[in-house]
Amino acid sequence: MCWERDVLYLLARTPRGTEDILPKESRIWQYIEGQLSDIFSLFGYKEIRTPIFEETELFQRGIGEATDIVEKEMYTFTDRAGRSLTLRPEGTAPVVRSYLQHKLYGEPQPVKVYYLGPMFRYERPQAGRSRQFHQYGAEALGTQDPATDAEMIAIPVELFHRLGLQTLQVEINSIGCPACRGEYRDYLITTLKPRVEQLCSDCQRRLERNPLRVLDCKDETCNSAKEGLRPILEFLCPECGDHFGRVQGYLDLLKIPYVINHNLVRGFDYYTKTVFEIIYSELGAQSAIAGGGRYDGLVEECGGPSVPAVGFAAGMERLILTLEHVGWEPPTMEAIDAFIAGVGETRTAVVELAFRLRRAGIATEMDYGDRSLRAQMKAAHRLNATWTIIVGEDELRDGQAIAHHMASGRQKQVPLSSMEDWLKEQMDTGCQGTKE
Ligand code: HAM
Which residue from 10, 180, 300, 310 could staple onto 294, CB 3.0 to 4.6 Å apart? Predict the structure, then answer.
């Protein structure tokens, strides 16, 4: 029945552009997440969790109608009541929505939050680019201080530093405020219009609506048209110029190396002033492992007061790819405290002991089949158990079991009734097992 096999084949696959995170991989995720929550709390950021989907209009207004994400990458659906909803393609607009909905602007400013979770973009899947991916990121709302711009770069840099990643490039630019950017837009349109034939079809289309995106277009067709263009920094008003200078000053102070990339404009309409990306070039086409910037107009754009803000987000999958690329290993091997091996008619005692040990805070595994002692010892090795507790029929009759220390091979008979106390004592004293 061939069709049945086809159906099952489809059911046994994740949808295109999505991945399972298997138990052997989740240990790496959890390690990174642990580092992240430590770093975020050192920098004074509290976690925020927003819904996976939002009203579509939030992203249309927030990210901008003429952006790639809104034009062609959103997972939008209509619910049963006819509302248009969208799986979040990024975390900044939802944070701003939450800030407004819960009037967080009435609390002491800045409000500093971080998040970690899945985002969804209908992009062409390739290495480092998927349709469901995970971002960790932070937003600081209610401050213009250029020190927060530097902080948004310093946080991912601190994480990468802890993970031993070098050879990362921090690229920064300023795209000014609506006033000075307007002048630059006009300059770009006037200068690029006579060269329009040299632009790729996407850039020809967006020249009038979003000319800044021409600058970061990766299509080689556009390169000759972009030759000799003046950088946006020459157009910044005094306030934006001063702000950008101070951001650089803070990065120098923190000894974070960076380069100014005049073509860096980023793909969201909400940015003002500082924009940045952190690049690991060995990843190839999808080399940005973090990106962000200031968005001083977004809160107002979403219907709130005029509140300046800045943030960053970074991709977990791209970070893990980078770590794989440099041969990184998480420092701790997963281990359990005890494995209980039963020999003969000892099933009930094994199950009861396992639950008692777990209740006492001892990470315990047990054999779930009737396997030989040899096979059970092998399983204990594989699970990296510190102790194997062998429950044999003879010992059980005397209310005893054998505690076998895996690393040294030493073993001792211990009363079953006080096994948890004995094991805890051994663990507390770091004891290597007692020879009998
Ligand atoms: P973004 O540059 O679109 O910025 O995304 C940030 C990071 O998410 C990228 O640098 C990349 O590592 C990862 N990423 C993006 N798309 C994908 C994908 N399809 N597959 C795998 N990883 C991906 C933002 O999302 C802004 N909200 C950042 C921000 C926060 N700006 C201000 N605050």
Answer: 310
